[in-house]
Specification:
Chain A is an alpha+beta fold. Chain A has helices at residues 18-27, 45-56, and strands at 7-11, 35-40, 59-66, 69-75. The longest helix of chain B has 16 residues, at 16-31. Chain B starts with 5 loop residues before the first strand and ends with a strand. Classes of the chains: A alpha+beta, B alpha/beta.
Chain lengths: 78, 131
Amino acid sequence: MRIKAKLVVDARGMMCPYPIMLLSLNLKSISPGEVIEVRATDPAFEIDIVSWANSTGHEILGVNKEGDEIVAYVKRVK
Amino acid sequence: MSSQPNLAIIVRSDRPESVYPALILASTAASMGVKVEIFFTFYGLKALIKGGVEDIEAKFKESLGGEPRGVPPLKDLLNMAKSFGVELYACSTTLEAMGLKENILLEGIPVVGAATFVNRHIQGNSRILIF
């Protein structure tokens, strides 16, 4: 699945909490309805992002695996 | 979101295994919309003293025998926590006990006592973590 993102965040090589932090920080710079793509190699990110979305109410459009990379697409809801 | 609990964290140690997880949890929770306050007391106050997080990080590197991989610098974690609205408080009794003056602390850190912490968290919806 390929989704068009407004912004791409590179969190590869960073461990918790950096990928989630970078996602949260950068989400502020896009508008509601727009999508952010986050690339991470921290294996926990795949599970953590679901919890993050549950708490924040933002929407995960998809999570892909590309080799060691986890690529998540998140829509800013509000 | 209104039913979401607040997180109240007490940091009483300047050991890396106390300060890192406290700041990681605090900044992550704040980025998820949780209201977070951290009360630094006893040796934990070191994290709020100018140059303190740098010293704590150096201790961590020394025990690892090298650079920690993938972990943000402690100063960045502290700044991220602040930028997400985490409130940091210094314990007044600790300052006095250690003979320290308020101007040794990082800018803008309120110095409060136990009553303030108790008043803010004894009722309502706070969860308390101690590091």
